[in-house]
Amino acid sequence: MFQCRQNDEQGFTLIEVLAATTLLLIVFTCLFGIYVQSTAYNTSNREKLQAVYLAKKAVSTLRSDQATVPKNAKEGDEVNISAYNLNQSPFEVKATVMKRTAEADQAQLLPVQISVIETNSQKILAKTFVYLKEASS
Question: Which segments cross the bilayer (predicted)?
């Protein structure tokens, strides 16, 4: 009377294919977000590394050429050391004389803050402090 139909069909149902596709899409979306974030982080680190390099170069320049900072420099005086172009990004390096302490005055040291600024955005990428031996009068 009743005949049982045999289900010989092999393969996946439409629901299984949609579920697998959805899961893959979710996983790839998460991985893509991580990739984008790590790329931005690497770019930021590269900029900071370049800025630290330029600051180190500025310290070297200041120490080798004492004439860069005036002998009678006061707190807040600013000296433009140089402008650089690295990887098509313009940077400006400035030295600012900081407040003198009694110890620095006694040792004839001039406290200087070096700032590396990205010229386009005026964003300070690196700051460092250094003491320079004051030039003899």
Answer: 12-36
